[in-house]
């Protein structure tokens, strides 16, 4: 075995997903605090970064440096080397958010206990399910009045279609939140407000049959707890590590990230249950992270701040072996050997150049415009290509028109380059080709980004005419379908992507169903293959 297997074994690479405001940033800060990566919580990223105005693309650009550094965080805790992938939320929710999940080996889903499953969680969750990666649930804000615990679990099971297994169980919520009961040790960890940040708390561990527990709990809470434990032991799914690994069962934890309660317990359990870097599928078969030499794939490309040079940073997830900056690698899709330029890694807030990194790690490299999303780089000795990253369904569409038709060439170049970075998807009318371009985006902010970047980087003014479509479907069995004979609904529109693949746009979900009903053989997919 290679000498780097120990390094790989201790790596844990996961993404945190949540609906905005559920507490993802707060939880991440607390993880870093336990890892000793930061001294005081509250310094992961400025609130202003997360809450910029929709149209303020200038501001976004200024903040780019920050968003680059905060997109991956690495820290050590308890012998593990942890890589947290941030999934951009809020207004800059985009395909990148989805793609980040392609680089993770597991996901932590943060849910606000008073809100339950929210829209954004649902969308991101679908991608995790598609990849069959383990999903861990942290139900946050228990120091505020929360929904009934059984109802919360029920909602997760019904809405997301995954079984749940509570590892601990909350006692009360809001003002009467007293702590959590650990189902394994049968002890109650009592809640004490740690004043929003410092690590020291006066948590106590009390056995559930210890008479002292009654002094801590409100009247009636103990009986309720015992009743709930009994119900739970009878009704809930049993913990099954196999099912967790396949993403079929989500271990659930309760806590309050703001007051630090339940965070370390969660982190400890999570690290034990989650996996070291997973094998990945490539054209030559399954790539074992420990056995194969260096390989990685590009999951995100970020345009750089410097307008003079269209520099970009390509983010790569290392999938096997050890990366050494001094060694040549092979860019498979570009069919060339190269040295990765200025490889960087993020440690809490700092970005630094790395000499070496291991499977599970994420590195950002300078990209002079050669990489595309999904590309493979690997050790030249053994060439293979990883399976492409799927294209995720945009939900907003607009027709793009140039204001000055003389600048056709720049326009086509600009829009193609921005599409190559994966910020937008472009489609053509089914019959007319590039005269009419339709742009699809996952988050509406990307429209502003497109307009701003075309104006500033390519000197092309555009007009965007919003279209009413919200659903796009790839035709899975396009060889078997005669598109001219397809019986759609009146609102359906046929388009094609740049590779000529046919796609269908619909205004509502009903039309999607109707079209499927009317065309027996038609197979549609929400994910496109690259
Ligand atoms: P996000 O990244 O998922 O969008 O959420 P973030 O951590 O920014 O948290 C959103 C708000 O919820 C913040 O309040 C944060 O302090 C609060 N919060 C997070 N975890 C808990 C918790 O366990 N209990 C309670 N009571 N609140 C929590 P804010 O007022 O928007 O910001 P701030 O001014 O407090 O920083």
Automatic annotation (TrEMBL):
CDD domains: RF3. Increases the formation of ribosomal termination complexes and stimulates activities of RF-1 and RF-2. It binds guanine nucleotides and has strong preference for UGA stop codons. It may interact directly with the ribosome. The stimulation of RF-1 and RF-2 is significantly reduced by GTP and GDP, but not by GMP. Keywords: Cytoplasm, GTP-binding, Nucleotide-binding, Protein biosynthesis. Pfam families: EF-G_D2 (PF22042), GTP_EFTU (PF00009), RF3_C (PF16658). It is found in: Cytoplasm. It comes from the Bacteria. InterPro entries: EF-G-like_DII, EFG_III/V, G_TR_CS, P-loop_NTPase, PrfC, RF3_C, RF3_dom_3_sf, RF3_GTP-bd. The keyword Nucleotide-binding applies. GTP binds at residues 18-25, 86-90, 140-143. Belongs to the TRAFAC class translation factor GTPase superfamily. Classic translation factor GTPase family. PrfC subfamily. It comes from Ruminococcus gauvreauii. Residues 9-278 form the Tr-type G domain. The keyword GTP-binding applies. Gene3D superfamilies: P-loop containing nucleotide triphosphate hydrolases, Peptide chain release factor 3, domain III, Translation factors. This is Peptide chain release factor 3.
């Amino acid at each position: 075995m290679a000498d780097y297997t120990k390094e790989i074994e201790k790596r844990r690479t996961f993404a945190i997903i949540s609906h905005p405001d559920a507490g993802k940033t707060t939880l991440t800060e607390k993880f870093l605090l336990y890892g000793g990566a930061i001294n005081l919580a509250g310094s992961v990223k400025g609130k202003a970064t997360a809450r910029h105005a929709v149209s303020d693309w200038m501001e976004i650009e200024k903040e780019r440096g920050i968003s680059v550094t905060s997109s991956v965080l690495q820290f050590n805790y308890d012998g593990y080397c942890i890589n947290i992938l941030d999934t951009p939320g809020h207004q800059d929710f985009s395909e990148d958010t989805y793609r980040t999940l392609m680089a993770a080996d597991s996901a932590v889903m943060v849910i606000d206990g008073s809100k339950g499953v929210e829209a954004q969680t649902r969308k991101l969750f679908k991608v995790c399910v598609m990849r069959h990666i383990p999903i861990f649930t942290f139900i946050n804000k228990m120091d505020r009045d929360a929904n009934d615990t059984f109802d919360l679990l029920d909602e997760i099971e019904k809405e997301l279609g995954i079984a749940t297994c509570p590892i601990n169980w909350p006692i009360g919520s809001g003002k009467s939140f007293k702590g959590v009961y650990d189902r394994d040790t049968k002890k109650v960890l009592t809640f004490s407000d740690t004043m929003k940040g410092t690590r020291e708390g006066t948590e106590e561990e009390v056995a559930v049959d210890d008479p002292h527990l009654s002094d801590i709990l409100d009247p009636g809470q103990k009986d309720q707890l015992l009743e709930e434990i009994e119900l739970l032991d009878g009704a809930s799914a049993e913990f099954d590590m196999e099912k967790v690994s396949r993403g079929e069962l989500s271990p659930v934890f309760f806590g309050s990230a703001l007051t630090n309660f339940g965070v370390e317990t969660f982190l400890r359990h999570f690290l034990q249950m989650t996996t070291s870097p997973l094998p990945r599928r490539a054209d030559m078969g399954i790539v074992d992270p420990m056995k194969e030499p260096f390989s990685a794939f590009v999951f995100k490309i970020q345009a750089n701040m410097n307008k003079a040079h269209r520099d970009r940073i390509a983010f790569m997830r290392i999938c096997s072996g050890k990366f050494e900056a001094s060694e040549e690698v092979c860019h498979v899709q570009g069919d060339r050997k190269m040295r990765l330029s200025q490889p960087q890694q993020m440690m809490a807030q700092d970005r630094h150049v790395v000499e070496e990194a291991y499977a599970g790690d994420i590195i950002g490299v300078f990209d002079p415009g050669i990489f595309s999303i999904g590309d493979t780089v690997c050790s030249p000795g053994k060439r293979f290509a990883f399976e492409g990253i799927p294209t995720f369904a945009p939900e907003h569409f607009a027709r793009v028109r140039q204001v000055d038709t003389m600048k056709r060439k720049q326009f086509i170049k600009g829009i193609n380059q921005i599409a190559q970075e994966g910020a937008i998807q472009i489609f053509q009318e089914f019959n007319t080709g590039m005269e009419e371009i339709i742009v699809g985006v996952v988050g509406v902010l990307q429209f502003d980004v497109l307009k701003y970047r075309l104006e500033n980087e390519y000197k092309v003014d555009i007009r965007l005419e919003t279209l009413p479509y919200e659903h796009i479907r790839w035709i899975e069995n396009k060889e078997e379908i005669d598109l001219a004979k397809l019986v759609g609904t009146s609102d359906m529109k046929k388009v094609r992507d740049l590779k000529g693949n046919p796609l269908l746009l619909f205004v509502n979900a009903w039309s999607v169903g109707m079209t499927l009903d009317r065309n027996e053989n038609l197979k549609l997919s929400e994910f496109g293959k690259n």
